[in-house]
Amino acid sequence: MKKVYLLAMIMMIMAIFIVGCSVPKVGLLKGTPNPLKEYTLEGTGADKILLIAVNGVISDKPKKGLIIESPSLVEQVVVQLNKAKKDRQIKAVLFKINSPGGTITASDILYNEIISYREKTGNKIVVSMMDVAASGAYYMSLPADMIVAHPTTVTGSVGVISLQPKFKGLMDKIGVGVDVQKTGKYKDMGSPYRDTADDEKKLLQKAMDSFGGRFIDLVKKHRKLSTQALTEVSTARIFLADEALQCGLVDRIGYIGDAVEEAKKLAKLSEEARVIVYRRAEFPEDNYYNIAGSFSEHLNISLVNLELPEILNSRAGFYYLWPGAISVER
């Protein structure tokens, strides 16, 4: 009985980490989404500040629920930036970030897209950090002209981590193994079915050092930290808002309204400048703190749109991520 239970457990764990939490695709509620439309949160002027929300783990993979599949966070941000490029009345973009980071590639894509947007439009970029804006979320914030941390923000975690689930110990207990044929000594490096050899650990660490070095180099480029501060940041520790301000990771502490005012100042806009969002549906009494997101439809589907916990969506690989902030539930 004990062996059956252990076998069931290992099958469940393998399904989560190896299959990647895939679920059957169901046609219910499937259809062409409404196009993004512009909605005004406040202001009456001609000039605009676009508010883009960045919530959750940064990934270029679609978000899968039990029934609903929504675009990846990368796709959501890029679609909005591309739409904003066509509107000359938009003078600044404000990113409202609440994220522990994500994959190294997805984080770098957003960093590059923000750089590209700023270069092509000349518009100002402001970041407003909420609960968490760590690791990859800080990485994508680096091109900003102004970073505003909420008084209770946690940021930093400037470093890279490799997630490699291992099942060997559990498999040994129940007498289950995996037969592997391969070409090349390192073809199955990082396999969850066996221990990682010392030479393989060195190769993995070399990759980690390269990815981590890139992150630190970009911090040097954009933030101009003192040697002492950079040494502290390089430990990949997290920083509270006042600590981040003191060492130079952020520019000021304030609320999202303060970030809006900073955007107006940087872009030399009047107080009447409009703050807008792109959404697929209108929300009554919409405001800065609406977490529905630009890709949410105005549908009552809470009983079926159950997203899997973010901790179960994390696949093996390299991450600019603070694991301590991955939510276990929504």
Helix content range of the residues, please?
A: 25-40%
- Overall average pLDDT: 83
CATH class value: Alpha Beta
How is the biggest beta sheet arranged?
9 strands, mixed
What is the molecular shape?
globular
The CATH superfamily is known as 2-enoyl-CoA Hydratase, Chain A, domain 1
Total number of domains: 1
Beta-strand content estimate: 15-25%
Order of helices and strands: HEEEEHEEHEHEEEHHHEHEHEHE
Output the structural class: alpha/beta
| Cα distance spanning the termini | 35 Å
How many helix segments? 10
List how many beta strands DSSP finds.
14
- The gyration radius over C-alpha positions equals 22 Å
The CATH topology: 2-enoyl-CoA Hydratase, Chain A, domain 1
Q: Poorly predicted ranges (pLDDT <50, ≥5 residues)?
A: 17-30, 297-312
CATH-derived architecture: Alpha-Beta Complex
Task: Please specify the SSE layout and strand pairing.
Elements: H1 2-17, E1 37-42, E2 48-55, E3 63-64, E4 69-70, H2 73-85, E5 90-99, E6 101-103, H3 104-121, E7 124-134, H4 136-141, E8 146-149, E9 154-156, E10 161-163, H5 168-174, H6 198-223, H7 227-233, E11 238-240, H8 241-247, E12 252-253, H9 256-267, E13 274-279, H10 310-313, E14 317-321
Parallel strand pairs: 2-5, 2-13, 5-7, 7-8, 7-9, 8-12
Antiparallel strand pairs: 1-13, 3-4, 6-14, 9-11, 10-14
